[in-house]
Amino acid sequence: MTENENPSLQPSTFLQELGGKVSEQHEKILLLKREVSKVIVGQSYMVDRLLIALLCNGHILLEGVPGLAKTLAVKTLAQALHVDFNRVQFTPDLLPADITGTQIFDQKTGGFSVRKGPAFANFILADEINRAPAKVQSALLEAMQERQITIGDESFVLPEPYLVLATMNPIDQEGTYSLPEAQVDRFMMKVVLGYPTLEQERQILRFNVSSEGFPVIQPVLSGQDVLTFRALTKEIYLDEKIEKYILDLVIATRTPDQFGLGYMDAFISYGCSPRATINLAMAAKAHAFIQNRAFVVPDDVRAIAIDVMRHRIGLTYEAEAEGMDVIQILNKIIGRIQVP
């Protein structure tokens, strides 16, 4: 935190000025959400997580059964922001070049030209990422981390904003390749989707059978607006007490006995990495921004904690034998750590 970001140094103006900037930009976020909600019904949770990832320059691993509008949500958000969108269906015979691109020999010139792959877009939907072998997964994950792709001896910077939404199907695991823990850790959040309610599904039904079809999405913002949101998200005030709360939550997954949860040592094989600490702080700031606040409160941390941490904890065989899952463990940790 810089000197200018510390409210104690500017007690009368800092939060007031920051709150004004947040409110101004929050109106644009509401406009974006209203436009997306014209088509996306009952998935406000997923849309909020997409926005948080965008504000934090992160990526999302999404788990849900087919038909929950995952593709439609990302495509609609791309349309509302007037940015490029590509969908890649991952299959066992996919090659890294099918994602990143390759060099093509030109017989006329006798040289090679670059043909860019689908990874060169602002928003990428990697559908069923666990259906492709590790070398293909790695090609995409490298692009996510480095924000560039090398083809031959030439490197290309990926466009901004850049968001990867990778999906996994929880009900059909035959012929899949599990993502290594170190690669899963590169995703800012893992979001698990459930079914829509009866009323939401009725509205979905009417959209799909109506002669009018889906509403047309208009571009209401731009990629540059997203970059503005990101810069403002970093300015959201995070008090030292909230910092300690975030650190306690993460460290409790590594040394639970330090927080009176010693019995969990038998259930946790490894705890959250430092990426969890960074992402939890950034996601809490973004959540506060979306709630039209210039500062983070504990509820922001609690609202996002499970999505940031659930894929960063390893369970032991004892946990499986006792019927303990990651959500139960995280809920016990969140319930145990003292709220500032």
Task: Write up this protein.
- There is one protein chain.
- The protein has 340 residues and is of the alpha/beta class.
- The chain has 2 domains: 15-92 and 120-148 and 155-222, P-loop containing nucleotide triphosphate hydrolases (Rossmann fold, 3-Layer(aba) Sandwich), CATH 3.40.50; 236-340, Magnesium chelatase subunit I, C-Terminal domain (Helicase, Ruva Protein, domain 3, Orthogonal Bundle).
- 45% of the residues lie in helices and 14% in strands.
- The protein is built from 13 helices and 11 strands.
- The chain has helices at 14-37, 44-56, 70-81, 96-100, 134-146, 181-184, 198-209, 223-235, 240-252, 274-290, 298-309, 317-321, 326-336; strands spanning 60-63, 85-89, 101-106, 111-116, 123-127, 148-151, 154-157, 163-168, 189-192, 268-270, 314-315.
- Strand 3 (101-106) and strand 4 form a beta hairpin.
- Helix 10 (274-290) crosses helix 11.
- The protein is globular, with a radius of gyration of 21 Å.
- The two termini are 20 Å apart.
- Mean pLDDT is 86; it is low at 1-5.
